[in-house]
From TrEMBL:
The chain crosses the membrane at residues 96-118, 161-182, 197-214, 219-241, 261-281, 302-320, 340-365, 377-398, 404-429, 441-458. This is Proton-coupled amino acid transporter-like protein pathetic isoform X1. Residues 1-31 are annotated as: Disordered. The gene is LOC117653811. Residues 65-460 form the Amino acid transporter transmembrane domain.
Length: 497
């Protein structure tokens, strides 16, 4: 932005956010030419941070922008992962009535944390004259622009976000290959001589490399739509089996005990959480102001996801009661329609791989692209191939990697999805807008305490899952009996492995 004919030096942000030159405006522009039009919350954020004369959404230049429908499709696919198949187990812990209440509360918290992350991004767009930011950018810049005591931690926050995102989503990609291979193996083994799981994983290499060649989220939208279709048909068949086996209400628990709340929270939060894809989706939108708002893309998507989670959890527990398995497909009879469900879910997870993997690609390529400007396209596709091959090789080497990724997910999703967004909102509005009585601060403290609770319980359950897989049988049984808990890895990417 220019002032009195003189142009200010480039900010640190411009060294890692792609620029099209539109951020720098001369003083000949009339004050107030650009107005914020994306709802009360964004206007409030802009007013608080004195950025009224800059419209980041008009300044944004995306080569292949996604529509609201494309973004909603991606969001649904990111949130409707394989963890949905364990919702009946979650309702078994909570009971039918409390399961509905708890799921709504968890959905509100997860959606709110994603919402405030994007809201802070919009406020920082105005303050820094920038049109797009990644999750890591938001963390670093909110510290740099925040109160004095937090400014020195910007780089550390950025590193924490990048490492956590990459570890979680790259691990997710590896486990997804195991899930896909496991579903296909389960079906093929019913009709042919069983083959080792590693063979199926290796066979996925070429298809996954081809999927990795999809250039951007715009062209990945049809893949996500196909994945939603596969998952929808698979869930439809599953719901049919559930609806014909419903038990009387007097045979079911309506309200579980407080001891059963932690495993319920672990299942639902780690199944529903999709914080890593929120900013990539917002950054690639044609109309990013429509991402927020009461009827915005984020609220629409999460409302739909919540209803589907409640429906499957409620009917699944009603159908099988105390016999509900860790994954609801394990309760289905060994019939052709049930086998079709496994194939469809395998295909849905295959299509979802691309969206999870895109998060890893953005992190790695953003750190490398400045070094390979002359042959950027070739270098980028080499990076794509390396990432896919590495994720498949990791799955082949350790097909029981699921519990370890569950531990990473328990740590990272609690920090990334709940605690960090609250921290970022506090420091973004620390000096100008914590609200009457500093209500934002107190609200975020309460939500962060909830996040710490989930982090501790999720970590404990994941460690139990690791012991269940790797510890000697005698020690494992003793540990499980002593804890009095049915250990399950609750990360959404590992629940069907």
């Amino acid at each position: 932005m220019a002032s009195n004919g003189a142009e200010l030096p480039a900010t640190e942000l411009q060294t890692f956010v792609p620029q099209d030159g539109s951020e720098k405006k001369s003083s000949s522009f009339n004050h107030g030419k650009y107005q914020v039009t994306n709802g009360n919350l964004d206007a409030e954020a802009a007013e608080l941070l004195n950025g009224k004369d800059y419209d980041p959404f008009k300044a944004r230049n995306v080569e292949h922008p996604t529509t609201n429908c494309d973004t909603l499709t991606h969001l649904l696919k990111a949130s409707l992962g394989s963890g949905i198949l364990s919702m009946p187990l979650a309702f078994k812990y909570s009971g039918l009535a409390l399961g509905i209440v708890y799921t709504v509360i968890v959905a509100i918290i997860c959606t709110h944390c994603a919402y405030i992350l994007v809201k802070c991004a919009h406020a920082l767009y105005h303050k820094t004259r920038t049109s797009a930011m990644s999750f890591a950018d938001i963390g670093e810049i909110s510290c740099r622009e925040g109160p004095e005591w937090v400014r020195k931690y910007g780089k550390a926050v950025r590193a924490t976000i990048l490492i956590s995102l990459f570890a979680t989503y790259f691990g997710t990609c590896s486990v997804y290959t195991v899930i896909i291979a496991g579903n296909f193996k389960a079906v093929v083994d019913s009709y042919a001589t069983p083959v080792e799981l590693r063979v199926y994983i290796a066979a996925l290499l070429i298809p996954l490399v081809l999927l990795g060649f999809v250039p951007n989220l715009k062209y990945l939208a049809p893949v996500s739509m196909v994945a939603n279709g596969f998952m929808g048909v698979g869930l439809g068949i599953t719901l049919y089996y559930l609806s014909i086996n419903l038990k009387p209400m007097d045979q079911l628990v309506l309200a579980g005990t407080p001891v059963d709340i932690p495993p319920f929270l672990c299942i639902v939060i780690f199944a529903m959480e999709a914080i890593g894809v929120v900013m990539p989706l917002e950054n690639n939108m044609k109309t990013p102001k429509n991402f927020l708002g009461l009827g915005g893309v984020l609220n629409q998507g999460m409302a739909g996801v919540t209803m589907i989670y409640i429906l499957l959890g409620f009917l699944g527990y009603m159908a099988f009661g105390e016999e509900t398995a860790d994954v609801i497909t394990l309760n289905l009879p060994n019939e052709i329609p049930a086998q079709v469900v496994k194939v469809l879910i395998g295909l849905a997870v295959f299509c979802t791989y691309g969206l999870q993997w895109f998060v890893c690609l953005e992190i790695v390529w953003d750190g490398l692209k400045e070094r390979y400007q002359k042959k950027a396209v070739l270098a980028e596709y080499i990076v794509r191939v390396i990432l896919v091959v590495t994720s498949v090789v990791l799955a082949i080497a350790v097909p029981t990697i699921g519990p370890f990724i569950g531990l990473i997910g328990a740590l990272c999703f609690s920090i990334l999805g709940i605690i960090l967004p609250c921290f970022i909102e506090c420091i973004t509005f620390w000096e100008t807008g914590l609200g009457p009585g500093k209500w934002r601060l107190w609200k975020n403290i309460i939500v962060s305490i909830f996040g710490v609770f989930v982090l501790i319980m999720g970590t404990k359950d994941s460690v139990q899952g690791i012991l269940k897989v790797y510890a000697p049988a005698a020690a494992n049984n003793g540990t499980m009996d002593a804890l009095g808990v049915n250990a399950t890895t609750f990360a959404p990417t590992t629940i069907t492995s």
